[in-house]
Amino acid sequence: MEAPFEKELPAGPINKSMLRYLYKLLSTTGMPKKILSIAALLSIASSMIGLVWPVMTGRFIDQFSTGGINGLLIILLVGVFLMEALTTGVSYYMLAYAGNRTVTMLRKRLWSKTLALPVHFFDNHRSADVMSRISRDTDEIRTLITEHLISFFSNVLTVIGALVILFWLDWRLTLVVLLAAPLGAAVIMPIGGKMYKISMNMYEQLGQFASVLTQVIGEIRLVKYSNAEKREQKNGFDKVDHLFELSMKEAKVYAVLSPLMSMIMIVLLTTVVAYGGMRVSSGALSTGVLVSFVLLLFQIMLPINTFATFYSNLQKVSGAVERLKPILEAEVEDEHDEKGAIMPILTQDIVFHNVEFAYSSEEPILKGINIYMHAGQVTALVGPSGSGKTTIFSLLERFYVPDKGLITYGERSIADFDIASFRSKIGYVSQESPLVDGTIRDNIMYGRIDTVTEAEMIEASQQAYAHDFITSLSKGYDTEVGERGIRLSGGQKQRIAIARALLRKPDILLLDEATASLDSDSEHEVQQALEHLMSRCTTIVIAHRLSTITNADQIVVLEFGQITGTGRHEELLNTHSSYAEWTNKQFRQTRSHDPQRLID
Ligand SMILES: Nc1ncnc2c1ncn2[C@@H]1O[C@H](COP(=O)(O)OP(=O)(O)OP(=O)(O)O)[C@@H](O)[C@H]1O
Q: Which of 115, 307, 396, 576 is the most exposed place for a label (fewest CB within 10 A)?
């Protein structure tokens, strides 16, 4: 189930509620307000100083043409330049600090939140999308704070201040300048809107491209084995070509916008210089004032130019906020964690009371499930593919909450327990035991690094029949595995997973038996390792081996999300026709190959 990214893009441009949300988000994330305020003051000071020197330069020119050079004025002018440089530099640094600090806090908040989100959130959101939200959308917010927000306000002040001075210097010339403003706005506004659409589209396409890359690179073996390189090449090329088209659309808009803006500026400057020149020659204006005027014009052109980029950045941030909202506002896994009960010391019975569950609002996957699993016993789940065996595991691991009914552990509903404490009592060994990037030690101690000793880890590895193969590797427990390290065989991976599970000293063991064949040595060792683990747990196993079902204390037969039989192997053989048929079929099929194995 994938929620298309585009659905969550903002419907329109900036609005009040978005701005309010952004402000709340930034202030609750810990935006350093003091630093930002000082930076704002410095930035305003720098802008105001920026208005002083053009006037002083004009005075200087006028004094120069009427008499000698005023030394004090030169010193003042140099002082003003230095002050402007200093305030600009310091405010820039402080703004960069405020922006980077805020985005760091926001990313930390998002990452913590992401880890606390329930599994179903990830069923509904592509991982590449979530990744892009945490990394790229937050960067838009950084850019806003660092480059646009404060400078926007100081630029507004610069423009207002400059206009006041311009009026004071020569109101006629200023009126000429003001006539150009609506012209500029008429050009920027529609083009800005177009730019927004293109950049949003590009954003989405980049997300989709990243998603294709992640998926294909992650499943490169499948791609090669299926000879699907051509198909994936075309898929990738399509996305890249689409990005090219969008980039060129963007370039086209810029190609029109930049010269248009330059043209407006050139026409404006030419008009001011020509008209001003006429007024100078008629004696109505001094040369110094005209110079001040032109310099001030330059001072305000730059800020006006940045208004358009501020607007488009704010629109991007509006999109970013819209995309971050679902993560920030999604309910976390266990809102009432603090109040959760601590797990009992002794292993308890696990009971499913009339449990019903659906992943979505459609057809329920589990219907009226009643299972009594006695503490310390083995319950084997059997049934055709898609019957809901893994879903039972997921409910037990509290990845999902039943829609109806209750799952109890001892006297209490499993939902009453502190989620971390509850999960710490579960050991899970799956068909495809996952490894994280890091050393073998990191993998065995995963999640327990602070609570277990090296000796305990080695003991667990020995019980898992993993110690010998690990020590035969040249770097032993320090061998890197995962993406950057060596590849381990299926059996080795499973034994690491068993060592990891043993280290947790679980009370509940969830075991998804491997369907893939291991070599007989590995098979034997994995089996022995598992027996160590099972001996101290209440075990629920998705069974694929005949020995597992014959040794199980009870077998639960699941068909289409319903339990159609419960009992021991012999009992079911006699009473459950489809179980008998299925077992015989599977057993006959695999007998010549491996008499112990059952395959779905
Ligand atoms: N995250 C999910 N979102 C939506 N539907 C799901 C999800 N996981 C499983 N399902 C659906 O729930 C049903 C039961 O799946 P489940 O994985 O529990 O079956 P299973 O008995 O473990 O199958 P198998 O033996 O093939 O692993 C299937 O129809 C499956 O498509």
A: 115
